[in-house]
Amino acid sequence: MAFTLYSLIQTAILCINAIAVLHEERFLIGFGVDQGVGGFGDDPGVKAQVLTLIRSVRTVMRVPLIIVNSACIVLLLLFG
Amino acid sequence: MGGSSAAATSRANNVSCAANVTMDLPHQGYRPTKPRARAAPPTADSILFDDTSSVAPAMNNQGYYTPGYNMAGPSNDMQGGAVPNNMFADPMANAAMVYGSSLANQGKDMVNKEISRFMSVNKLKYFFAVDTKYVLKKLMILMFPYTHQDWEVRYHRDTPLTPRQDVNAPDLYIPTMAFITYILLAGMALGIQKRFSPEVLGLCASTALVWVIIEVLVMLLSLYLLTVHSDLSTFDLIAYSGYKYVGMIFTVLCGLLFGSDGYYVALAWSSCALMFFIVRSLKMKILPSLSSDSIGTGSSAKPQFRLYITVATAVFQPVVIYWLTSHLVR
To answer: What is this model's ipTM?
Structure first.
């Protein structure tokens, strides 16, 4: 597999887009029901960490993702 | 000519400075010629690199433009303000040079400030504070780790010791140099097979870089998800993941020199050595709290997962080595 840095950037953008468009109520119901539990103490567990990660990625990357996606659309329209 | 006499004079100045400091030891026949003898105990704000700027202002009256400018660079660096070197008879050129050097200083300060917003430069300097002895010992350990006894990274009042003082400390010099050497070797191997073109070199470089980035990201993700509180920073992970390039270089060299059999033998040897090295090094860092963790509620899965991470990292190394080098040695 010959990777280029451009393919890495594409992969990253696609993955973050996937996390951003995830509908929590539909898909995460069977996954981790104990979202209400704060997870204090020193062992939040894998599921709570994944949920925290997904939530924080969605919060942080919402605005930059808009900008990056718009730039990608313009560049792909212009340069194919 | 100007450059070599400047170097000789600076060396003489260093010798005289060091001799002034060590005047109290006249009975030692050995005269330390390196200024490192002055800067022996590193503090927290440690002197990681030798400061040769104190001999710079003596070089001003050379009459050559280029060496004078190079010597004036570090002195501007250290003194913070531009020392005008009135080298030209023309006052306009002097003024222009002072203005240019002040502009360069401002640009440098701005770049430093911007870079230090993203990563701390001091932390990066720690990884490059190596010397020849360390590099040789580390390369020996990477290729033959079975006789190395003590794998603990030593600390000095809560900060880890620099690679110069502790052979177990990770560094970024060896991975960087090994990466560049690997790219050059790949170019040479492809040239031997008459498949070389400049684009292939760039492709090889970016492929190797992407694999390192993927591995570091997966390691960071798994360490975060399993709430492993280790003191492995991103740079540490980059360093440990970059040590496989040494194995790759050895494998490719043996493949080029001894053919396909030599390639597989070298692959087996460097895979085993690297796996042993990674397991022993990461075991200290990822699995330390096994004995001290007395909170046993539901943590029966945790030591297992930490072991899985270490073993998975170790097993990943030969896979990547094979993947990145097999197409070079047909």
So the answer is: 0.81
